[in-house]
Amino acid sequence: MNLQWYPGHMTKARRMMQEDLKLIDLVIELLDARAPLSSRNPDIDEMCRQKSRLLLLNKADLADERKNQAWSAFFQEKGFHVAKVDSRSTAQVKFIHNIVREACQEKLERDRKRGIKNRPIRAMAVGIPNVGKSTFINTFAGKACTKTGNRPGVTKGKQWIRLNKSVELLDTPGILWPKFDDPQVGTRLAMIGSVKDEIVNIDELALQLIAYLKAEYPGILQKRYDIEESGEPVQLLEAIARERKCVKKGADLDYGKAAGMILEEFRSGKLGRITLE
Ligand SMILES: Nc1nc2c(ncn2[C@@H]2O[C@H](COP(=O)(O)OP(=O)(O)OP(=O)(O)O)[C@@H](O)[C@H]2O)c(=O)[nH]1
Ligand SMILES: [Mg+2]
Fold it and tell me: Are residues 57 and 131 in the same domain?
């Protein structure tokens, strides 16, 4: 799937993020656990070389748990601090506080040696569209937290949220742009809903999802839609349309409606916990 990203938009986002990065100690990078490589912007490594890093495999509740573990191990091996999360869950806030501290051990140690006591860790959440940045910030910050307002010397308008004595969070998320060099990346991002549906071919996308599910998660389509999984993807789509009574005026099957439904059911987890790569 060939998708265009707007270079102007991208340059501006990058410049803004570079400014924000100067203010922080820790970058909390959100990935979509269903497509951790495709939802990751490789430039972030270059931009954040001096910072502590924490990778969150977000929406882990929607992804295949076995693959969540494999991806966690993969990124850990590369030297990142990693955690699987469901950003909507307030039950995980304490756990995230702990891994944030863990990811910043070096900074805390450095401060201690210099005799700096109790300087809060400043963090920022970054990630591609729809990965869950705002949800994460809201959950992590919680209701009880107060915005500390503009700090002296910091560009006007930047808000810090004081999470507790030891962590402050920049309340604007950094928006990263995905890389579409590989058409498969565009396809996966469209499947997880990080690309506007208006610019993708839904029918084509649903057929690709059906082909993937048939190969990697046999039985899932059969269980959900009560269809035989033999045949080409288009035949499966037809069977699903028939089973779910997706029909147009007259009696023609409405493939578009069936395609949209399958994508929606995948994205919301109704098809089960599925990882795309
Ligand atoms: N199941 C599940 N859904 C999540 C999780 N995190 C976020 N969501 C949902 O994903 C959707 C997008 O979340 P947002 O927080 O708006 O994502 P964002 O990164 O701020 O998106 P933009 O502001 O558009 O870039 C929302 O419907 C959230 O409820 C998660 O961990 N699990
Ligand atoms: Mg947002």
Answer: yes
